[in-house]
Specification:
single chain; alpha/beta; UDP-N-acetylmuramoyl-L-alanine:D-glutamate ligase; 4-stranded mixed β-sheet; 13 strands
Length: about 300
């Protein structure tokens, strides 16, 4: 049996709302330093989410059974029941005195997001050790979680020579400059969106060239403009297009979906370019449904797409 993919990241509930306008239309120019705004939304949905949960869900859609490493609270029984058949949740630990982490996310018509996050059980994630995983792991992704847990997992992967994707995302502000550098160094790939990449550059003073002395690949996503890959392996820059969804419903979770596609490609030795195409194609499926774990894919369509690459 082929070694498993391991997903370490937050497990959370998402409270998702779409603002049917643009935030920019309601923020006074020159007053960003002194905000006092309220955005009225017509509805709000509470759904399963979290970076770890989302990536694992998408890998399961592609026929994988990933190992999920994360922490939940007393309110996660239905969440775990919903995914336990297709995701290995043996290493998800419950902390009954806490609630599961939760994110409140509001997205506008330009795909800009305003979010708040309640840590909850996630602050205990460092108590779940990657060394406890008994299965053989072919690749890991370390997605936003508690900073201590993320740092510990990166150190473990580096020492055990487990290839990993560094996905610091929303956790970037919580890292010290030194810890952020340490977290990224040694990763097979750093995957971030364009805003997060700018944050990392500001914090580390790294350029693309200096970063590629520390990782094999830098992958930056640009929303509906696609993504770009810089490779230290052969000094190439690859542009990956964004695939058009059949309908635009909700962009929340597309980044996690993209990362799952990358991991699938790596697992099947398809190479970095084809892996990114899979991630981009899968992200378009995520847009077609509300929430981060409600989209489906046609296995026939997926096989046809992979064959076309």
């Amino acid at each position: 049996m082929k070694p498993s993919l391991l997903v370490a990241g937050s497990i959370a509930f998402d409270r998702i709302a779409v603002f049917n306008d643009k935030f920019a239309n309601h923020i006074l120019k020159g007053h960003v330093h002194q905000l006092n705004v309220s955005f009225t939304v017509e509805d709000m949905a509470v759904m399963r989410g979290g970076t770890g949960g989302n990536i694992a869900y998408n890998l399961a859609l592609l026929g994988q059974k990933p190992i999920l490493l994360g922490s939940v609270g007393s309110d996660a029984k239905e969440y775990m029941k919903a995914i336990e058949k297709k995701v290995n949740i043996s290493y998800v630990k419950s902390f009954p005195k806490l609630l599961t982490s939760s994110a409140t996310i509001m997205t506008d018509l330009d795909d800009n997001q305003i979010a708040s996050f309640y840590m909850g059980a996630m602050k205990e994630a460092h108590k779940i050790k990657m060394s406890s995983v008994k299965e053989k792991v072919s690749m890991a992704i370390i997605a936003p979680n508690s900073v201590k847990a993320m740092s510990d997992y990166a150190d473990y992967c580096f020492k055990k020579e487990i290839p990993f994707i560094a996905d610091p995302g929303q956790a970037i502000p919580a890292f010290s400059n030194k810890d952020l550098k340490d977290f990224i160094t040694g990763a097979n790939a750093l995957v971030v969106n364009d805003y997060e990449w700018q944050m990392i550059q500001d914090r580390t003073k790294w350029t693309v060239k200096s970063l590629l002395n520390k990782v094999n690949y830098l992958i930056v996503t640009y929303g509906d403009k696609g993504s770009k890959i810089w490779s230290a392996v052969d000094a190439t820059v690859i542009n990956i297009p964004a695939y058009k969804p059949k309908k635009l419903v909700d962009p929340t979770g597309c980044g996690d979906t993209y990362r799952a596609g990358l991991m699938y490609g790596f697992q099947h030795d398809l190479g970095i370019e084809k892996s990114a195409h899979i991630g981009s194609w899968l992200a378009a499926r995520c847009v077609e449904a509300k929430g981060t774990q409600n989209h489906k894919i046609s296995k026939t369509d997926f096989k046809k797409f992979v064959k076309s690459l």
